[in-house]
Structure formats: structure tokens, C-alpha cells
Amino acid sequence: MITNSNDERVTRLICLFFILVGWILISGCSSPNSAKQVYNTPEPLTDVVNIDKDEVTAWEYESFSDAFEFGSRSIGAPDGKYEGYRGVLTLSDNLIRDYNLYTDDEVEIFTHCDSFDISGYSTHWYYCNNLYFVFDTDWDTDVLYYDGNNHILFSITKKEH
Predict the structure, then answer these.
(1) Which pTM was predicted?
(2) pLDDT tens track for 7-51
(3) CA-to-CA distance for 140 and 23, rounded, in angstroms?
(4) Alpha helices, DSSP H only, in 28-159?
(5) In 29, 36, 99, 102, which residue has its Cα 20 to 30 A from 128's Cα atom?
């Protein structure tokens, strides 16, 4: 009887060890599209987007990666993209007037930010053709919408090389 009791304890300790190791491995992972860092300044977004930073009155955006990260190792994203920025910029009245920004069709938003709620800026987002002149980038523009007032919602990603 004593041997069975010791065997059960050893089995329980081994199971507990593997559960602990699994938990540690999973906690060291980040899921695709999770936010990495939040920004309230023009840089580093202005390194990849041509926008007059003097005409943006507020910056709130985050960087993200759509690759699966396992510890310090990054496993490629299925769509071939791996880093990007998404968020909301508040534009000056001068910029809106200069580019003659107007709303077109309303869109249903499936984009979200991890670090802040985009509905705090607006509950309605619209297409705006002239917005591409304001927010010009060589990266893939996944989302670029205007709220009809002074906010733009964006999500851009860079393809792997």
C-alpha cells in the first residue's frame, strides 16, 4: 500500500510539473494582432506615414504584430504581414478645410484597438476619398475612415520582405 501511495504522489508531481511548464510557455506567447506599445506622439508613425504632424492635434495609436510570438521567437503570419499601427488621429480644422474632407458611405467597423476604445471617438465612421491625400503611406492601408468631424481611424500593415 505504501508503494502505491508513493507512485500516486510521483504521478501527481509529474502532472503538476507539466501543467506548470505548459502554463509558463503559454504565458510567454502573444496572440496575433495583439497590441505591443501605445503611442501619443507622432513618432514612430510619421516614419511610415506622410502626414503634416503640425495639423494633427492628438495622436492615439498602437503598434501590433499579426505574427504569433512564442517567447522570443516569432512564427510567420499567414497573410505575409507582420507589423503595423492602428488607432485614431485628431485633425485640425485647417487640415479638414484644406483637404475638403467630406463623408461618403457609412461603414461597419470590425477593427478594434486593444489599448483604447475607438467608440469613444465616434460611433459612426465613413469612407472619405480625400483622406488618402491626408494619410499617405507605402504600407498596406487596411482601414482608413473619417468620422465627419475631426477624427480618422486607421490600420496599416507592412509586408514581410
Answers:
(1) 0.75
(2) 888 888 888 877 766 655 555 555 556 778 999 999 999 999 999
(3) 35
(4) 93-98, 131-134
(5) 36
